[in-house]
## 1
Amino acid sequence: MAESVHETPMANRLHIGFFGKRNSGKSSLINAFVGQEVSIVSDVAGTTTDPVYKAMEVHPLGACVIIDTAGFDDRGELGEIRVEKTRLAAQKADIAVVVCADGDLEEELKWYRIFYEKHTPVLFVINKADILHNSKEIANQIQKETENMAVVVSAKEKTNIAQVKEALVRLVPEDYDERQITGELVGEDDLVLLVMPQDIQAPKGRLILPQVQTLRELLDKKCLVMSVTTDKMPAALALLKQPPKLIITDSQIFSYVYEKKPASSMLTSFSVLFAAYKGDLPYYVKGAKAIDRLTEDSKVLIAECCTHAPLSEDIGREKLPRMLRKRAGNLAVEIVGGMDFPNDLSGYDLIIQCGACMFHRKYVMSRIHRAMEQNIPMTNYGVAIAHLTGILPKIAFSENEC
Ligand SMILES: Nc1nc2c(ncn2[C@@H]2O[C@H](COP(=O)(O)OP(=O)(O)O)[C@@H](O)[C@H]2O)c(=O)[nH]1
Ligand SMILES: [Mg+2]
């Protein structure tokens, strides 16, 4: 989905997924919930095929992404593909709304257990109260099995929709949105210098998302921020009365900045900050060391989130394979894009994930957990390049990162 710089990035929004059997009224409930027709409602089972991700402001939850999914009881060959996509959507959800409209809860409870294992809060909604006669019994059964209090609604008559919102507010994970990009590295009144090359790879007329988000966070933290292009770094340092506490730069020019920086200034890169913000930095650092064990018989999986960004394409498709092959011989590199990420990772010696600026942490973490479970080293672009160029030991890490 295209992003505008004026809006909260997709990845920072609370993702609320609606799950349930076909025809339980998921799409109708979403429409009632957001007060506008965002989803296609129909009485033909299986109308919502691919999950629909819609960014919107939902009072009082704030910036959300609402995910409408196909029924998890979808059948046939196409149905299986849809269920797989629903599973992917389940990994992205910060909160799962499970919609039921009858007393057969077998599938619903199966999915509940999947969410429970992932620590994803679940809200049960019993829909079609206007025609359902046993909603109380269903609610009791849900409470017995899961200790959850279901909300009984009618999406059609729009009854009890406010209760759904209230219940959701209470389910927002406590640590949601508290993670910081710059962690403990800097605080109020600290001087931070951003050295950002605006070369041909930089998008015309704007900054890339990690730079915008870092800048915003530093301003929110009341840091004193100065931004320069690479060539102006010496002039900026000469003007300053004291050295910056922290310098953040692009990994491509890290060595140059390291050479020029005052001894007392800490240095890090946007990509390493984002590796910690979006993923698991210690696992990435460990994974980067697996690069040293690669041989020409090895197979590396490169996973890219955007299928279109020329900058990451250049790194993922050309730069990284070239650097790896220079070190380990003509090894095999497989590249996947977007949401593609194999379930079975056993054929790979290393996985290298992109910066994931378009994905939110929960989803990136689900990939990392899959790699961990299968004992496959995983790292990301920034950390891999930092390792390959020998700068990793020179980078300042926040205490909550390593
Ligand atoms: N009576 C009644 N019908 C509903 C209600 N919610 C949805 N429906 C109907 O159930 C059918 C399936 O709804 P839809 O939202 O497309 O279900 P989905 O497949 O879960 O997304 C449609 O014919 C809706 O009009 C409700 O609260 N009461
Ligand atoms: Mg639907």
Note: Residues 20, 22-28, 41-43, 47-48, 71, 127-128, 130-131, 154-156 surround guanosine-5'-diphosphate (ligand 1) (CB under 6 Å).
## 2
Amino acid sequence: MKHKILIGDCRKALKTISPDSIHLIVTSPPYNVGIGYGNWNDSISFNDYLEFSREWLSECHRILTDDGRICVNIPTSTYKSNSVDLFRFHEVMREVGFKDRELIIWAKRRISDGRLCGKKIYGTWNPMNPLLRNPIEAILVMNKNRKRLSSFGKSDLTTKEFLRWNYTLWEIDTEADRSHPAPFPIELPRRLIKLFSFVGQNVLDVFLGSGTTMKACVELNRNSIGIELNPEYVKMAKKRIGYACVSVENISSKIDSLESCWDGEYIINGGMRYKLPSKMRIP
Ligand SMILES: C[S@@+](CC[C@H](N)C(=O)[O-])C[C@H]1O[C@@H](n2cnc3c(N)ncnc32)[C@H](O)[C@@H]1O
């Protein structure tokens, strides 16, 4: 099987992938909730976030096979006024051409201590402004076009797995290893890959992070492509998957441009951003 990581902004990296070449996309985008991803501003305006989503989702639609599927992990509550909104995100997916298939609910069995998530007012919990915790996230599963796969392949899905997983409330622990700030547990891509693709097909994660989807692909004998902007997370993913079985490609090889950004100035080279030391910055 082949596994490749593309380093760079997904909007650019996706353009290098051939049309109709990917059978399944499993991914979890940044939620625009202000997480420190290093070189990505996770707190842009709501409209910019929708535009960003539209751009990468349109590319996903282009590169999927006609019978291809996409599974996107999205929260079910909006944390801030500009953060991702399940309903608007779903609308954008429909606008770029995806067709509804399933809504899976991921119920997290291990969530943070309630006492950390609100303040006692007047020394006790009361209805003044209770903050309720939301332990569920969604996985939107959509088709490019046809629901049914056009040809038969080798399946590794057992009857027991199918009967457990076709009930769309999935109770899965959150990931305990927090070396990456927002990983999903490997059980999530594992189930999606087994349910929605045949052995040997091509799976893509647009936001690879620590490499969870790719690790599942290695274990389940699927080819995979992962895209990640932050070279530090790419190192993490390569270590996790095994250096020998992953090839890494920068999406271009020359210095493309200089970019001023919310947190400094960068050289864009080979699809990667290098932060300039302050003394080298352009006044
Ligand atoms: C929610 S995390 C994905 C975590 C991943 N599922 C895992 O298990 O580790 C989103 C990832 O997208 C990356 N990212 C953010 N903006 C990006 C962009 N424009 N292009 C490519 N990657 C991006 C972040 O660096 C982060 O690693």
Note: Helices lie at 10-13, 46-63, 86-95, 159-165, 187-196, 212-220, 231-241.
## 3
Amino acid sequence: MQTVTVNASKQYDVLIGSGVRALLPEKISSLFGSVRVCLVSDDNVARLHLDEAETLLQNAGFNCSRFVFPHGEASKNPTVLFELLEHLADERFSRKDVLVALGGGVTGDLGGLAAALYMRGMHLVQIPTSLLAMVDSSVGGKTAVDLKAGKNLAGVFNQPDLVLCDPDYLSTLPPEDFSDGMAEVVKYGVIADEALFDTVKDGCIKDRLTQIITRCVTIKRDVVDEDEFDTGRRALLNFGHTLAHAIEAKSNFTVSHGKAVAIGMCRIAALAEQHGLCDAPCLKQIQNALTNNDLPTDTAFLNAELFDEVTKDKKCTGGSITLILPRRIGDCYARATPIDECKRMLS
Ligand SMILES: NC(=O)c1ccc[n+]([C@@H]2O[C@H](COP(=O)([O-])OP(=O)(O)OC[C@H]3O[C@@H](n4cnc5c(N)ncnc54)[C@H](O)[C@@H]3O)[C@@H](O)[C@H]2O)c1
């Protein structure tokens, strides 16, 4: 088992390794004592994994309740959020109790926000079950739901108290969703670690999952420790994401987050090359790595079409957009780009 400790406004451990999910009862007990547990999952994850988690907790004497919602990004909205808050209230949870978000990034974002809001904050344990949630969304404390105007527009920073990252969950993850997570893994390689990029660039990484997840979580931890509230270095984690959010929205969320990130990374690397903004061309390497991990590298949406969506993005502030650009594989930088210049580049 690997342990990565996050030292943000709250200190917490991310435990990574086969079988760590079995530690849930003892960890809850040692962190919070005798509390009640609300398990939150989408219907897919509930069908496959919720009974096991609930039984583990019940056998250890915990009183549990479950909240299950329909899977998919469409559920990451204020209506489902308030249904979850009403559930917590109906079940008379207190702020000393624990919400366990067992699922992918949608469950983690929704559950994390509910835990922050309910009675101004209850305990939160993240148990990511998708690769994307393991390497990215379960760590770092960003929580949100989507609004009609765009993704993740209503949210707060809420660090969990514990993250249990068990790669065994990935055996039931559909290949499509596994690839989505690989987009974020490739991203970490491009922004911070050429060796990680080399490890994953040919695909077929299932025998090295704990090692790869640990490396990604460590990179994210280092960034979050330095810039928890996203005022500086954390922006690097958004490599490919500004265009990705626009692609997701334009496609009415039929293009998944991971696939949109893959396309967004290629588009932005292409722009960097075209405009002489990178030291070493890396578009081809990124495209190959994505293709080898069953990810798309382009979309029919034109850059100009995505521009309107881009300007709605939270990362567009004060007349400029922070573009994250690759210098070379393993090294990216943030460039505040005036909207007019951005529009010219994208058109
Ligand atoms: N908070 C953050 O820092 C952060 C970072 C990146 C992405 N996100 C958010 O994460 C979301 C995407 O995450 P995601 O790709 O995990 O989406 P998701 O939660 O919708 O999961 C993808 C699909 O996989 C299924 N699934 C998950 N685990 C499974 C398992 N073990 N077995 C079988 N099926 C399983 C889910 O039911 C769903 O259908 C987006 O909303 C994105 O905005 C948040």
Note: The chain has a mean pLDDT of 94.
